[in-house]
Design a protein that fits this description.
alpha/beta, UDP-n-acetylglucosamine1-carboxyvinyl-transferase, Chain, four-stranded mixed beta sheet, 14 helices, about 30% helix, about 30% strand, binds shikimate-3-phosphate
Length: about 450
């Protein structure tokens, strides 16, 4: 028998000169998932441009293909979906594997709860350890029959679709995944489904349902949908992902003499928390060429090297910057003075425990980051990070990319080990950074 030699893959980010130039970012991950889901449920064809062709979104596309939706790629990022209507999905023959994607799993749980068939959702090790009770519990109140591991808290989730009834749900967390899962269930439920949240989470679902022709009621932190509304096929363009833009943005702020323009980035106010925080820290970022694309505001962002100072993060900004705290922590670690993040306990249940992963990974490169139960205290060093160490990505794309940006800005190279999963949200990250002058190398070790 042949002996298997384990091959370890590593990413090494090297410090270098200024980052300069213009880049376009891949499509927004949240918006891409929704474009696929609503396109599949619409009557008629939808054409999506600039769809994120990252691992997470392709899993969602594959799940709908397994339920009888024709999805055809005609060009890079251009997808034609033949919608089957709200009642047109068919029972998948196999388990639906959502990979690393919390959005894919939670949104599909909501949708599948009201379909007249049986389905099973699973995912990778990270996804199987993320809380699913936050959707399973309110969906059960609507009549859903969902079973999962550990008293229905974890995937795999087995869903026996059934008839649902709308509820009024006051969510304890500001989560767009919870909100969207319930609204998707509500599309197939009797009566109204009303969701309130403690702070406004990203509102792409609300904007896109409107674009697909569904009348929603929105009042402050409450949104409602009435069952049976039809979706009409549309043509739309997905804006560049501000959560991906965050990496070259912080890299340009930290590497001396950098001047980078990020084209066509979505600046939906529910997503621009990082911009607000960096501006508060003294970052030189300007918004140019602001426009609207399919109900979502878009701009080009010009970012220049800046001297940053520490801040106290206002709690109300936290939900609007939730995915950006890993790279924000890096910016704060290189700023003058102290930065404190609190009220961000959600970071513990993302693709990894991001508070722990960041404190450890950046700590190894010389950052002074103290873990708090719901955030972190960062004592900045404007001299920058020493680098020179290995750190674990924990299968988390945003941890891996943060560590790579740290390497571009540090005094010595940073090596990222473990599954990096960068393809889930930012395919071509290394190449994109290379066009700006950043050197990221992939190496395998036996
Ligand atoms: C997302 C919502 C957020 C975010 C995730 C994408 C979405 O998660 O962190 O990356 O597309 O709805 P929560 O709903 O758990 O806050």
């Amino acid at each position: 028998m042949m002996e298997m030699i384990p091959v370890k893959s590593m990413l090494i980010a090297h410090p270098g000169g200024p980052l300069r130039g213009e880049i376009e970012l891949p499509g927004d991950k949240s918006i891409s998932h929704r474009a696929v889901i609503f396109g599949a449920l619409a009557d008629g064809e939808s054409v999506i441009h600039h769809l994120l062709e990252g691992e997470d979104v392709l899993r969602t596309v594959a799940a709908f293909q397994a339920m009888g939706v024709a999805a055809r790629r005609t060009d890079a990022g251009v997808w034609h979906l033949r919608g089957v209507g709200l009642e047109g999905l068919s029972e998948p023959e196999d388990v639906l594997d959502m990979g690393n994607s919390g959005t894919g799993m939670r949104l599909l749980a909501g949708l599948l709860a009201g379909q007249p068939f049986f389905s099973v959702l699973t995912g990778d090790e990270s996804l199987r350890s993320r809380p699913m009770g936050r959707v399973a519990i309110p969906l059960a109140r609507m009549g859903a029959r969902i079973l999962g591991r550990n008293q229905n808290r974890y995937a795999p989730l087995a869903i026996q679709g059934t008839e649902l009834t709308g509820i009024e749900y006051v969510s304890p967390v500001a989560s767009a995944q919870v909100k969207t899962a319930l609204l998707l269930a509500g599309l197939n439920a009797a009566g109204r489904t009303v969701v309130s949240e403690p702070a406004l989470s990203r509102d792409h679902t609300e904007r896109m349902l409107a674009a697909y022709g569904v009348g929603l009621e929105r009042h402050g932190l409450t949104v409602a949908v009435t069952g049976g509304a039809r979706l009409r096929g549309v043509a739309l363009t997905v804006p560049g992902d501000i959560s991906s833009a965050a990496f070259p943005m912080v890299a340009a702020l930290l590497v001396p003499d950098s001047d980078v323009t990020l084209r066509g980035v979505g600046i939906n106010p529910t997503r621009t928390g990082l911009l607000d925080l960096l501006l508060m820290m003294g970052a030189d970022i300007t918004l140019e060429n602001q426009r609207d694309d399919g109900g979502e505001p878009v701009a080009d962002l010009r970012v220049r090297h800046s001297r940053l100072h520490g801040i106290q993060v206002p709690p109300e900004v936290v939900p609007r910057a939730i995915d950006e705290f890993p790279v924000f922590a890096l910016a704060a670690a290189c700023a003058v003075g102290e930065t404190v993040v609190t009220g961000a306990e959600e970071l513990r249940v993302k693709e990894s425990d991001r508070i722990q992963a960041i404190a450890q990974g950046l700590g190894r490169q010389g950052a002074d980051i103290e873990e708090l139960p719901d955030g972190m205290r960062i004592r900045g060093n404007p001299g920058g990070l020493a680098g020179g160490a290995r750190a674990e990505a924990y299968g988390d794309h945003r941890i891996a990319m943060t560590l790579m940006v740290a390497g571009l800005a540090a005094r010595r190279a940073v090596t990222v080990t473990g599954r990096a999963n960068v393809e889930t949200s930012f395919p071509g990250f290394g190449t994109t950074m290379a066009t700006l002058g950043g050197r990221i190398e992939q190496r395998t070790e036996e």
